[in-house]
Amino acid sequence: MSALVEGAKKAGANYHVGVVQCKDSFFGQHEPETKPVGPELLYKWDAWIKCGALCSEMESSTLFVVGDYLRARTGAVMLVVANQERAKKGLPNPQAHDMEVVYKTTIEAVRRLIASDKA
């Protein structure tokens, strides 16, 4: 099992494992109607949702590409701050900003990798 999953369990975190969308434009997602290609951006966002993307962020693809090139293990832990789809539907949209669980998950995952490497 993944060191990050085990780290999340040990940290008591609610977690999901799956595909995320890594984008190059924050406002292309959050304000697509203000862009010349707005309809295309909305179409693509809808496709990501229908394909089951768990979240959207802007950094992990670089980590994974460089990690692969360097033949280094890589992983990503994301804290979902808010859910824009819930907000659009008028549903409760609690926000999370406490990074403590992310830190605990990551530290525990690294501990597990170190122990595994020593074994």
How many domains is the backbone divided into?
Answer: 1
Q: State the order of secondary-structure elements, H for helix, E for strand.
A: HEHHEHHH
Question: What radius of gyration results from the CA coordinates?
Answer: 17 Å
In the CATH hierarchy, the third-tier topology is known as Rossmann fold
Helicity, in percent?
40-55%
CATH superfamily, please? Nucleoside phosphorylase domain
Quantity of strands, as a count: 2
User: What is the count of helical runs?
Assistant: 6
Strand order in space, largest sheet: 1-2
End-to-end Cα distance, whole Å, is 16 Å
Unreliable stretches: none
What form results from the Cα inertia axes? globular
Give the second-level CATH assignment, the architecture: 3-Layer(aba) Sandwich
User: In this structure, how is the largest beta sheet organized?
Assistant: 2 strands, parallel
Binned strand content = under 5%
> Based on helices, strands and strand pairing, what is the structural class?
mainly alpha
Average of pLDDT: 92
Provide the CATH top-level class: Alpha Beta
List keywords for this structure.
single chain, 119 residues, mainly alpha, Rossmann fold, two-stranded parallel ribbon, 6 helices, 52% helix
Describe this structure as you would to a colleague.
This protein is mostly helical and 119 residues long. It has helices at residues 3-11, 26-30, 38-50, 60-70, 84-88, 100-118, and strands at 21-22, 56-57. Helix 1 (3-11) packs across helix 6. The mean pLDDT is 92.
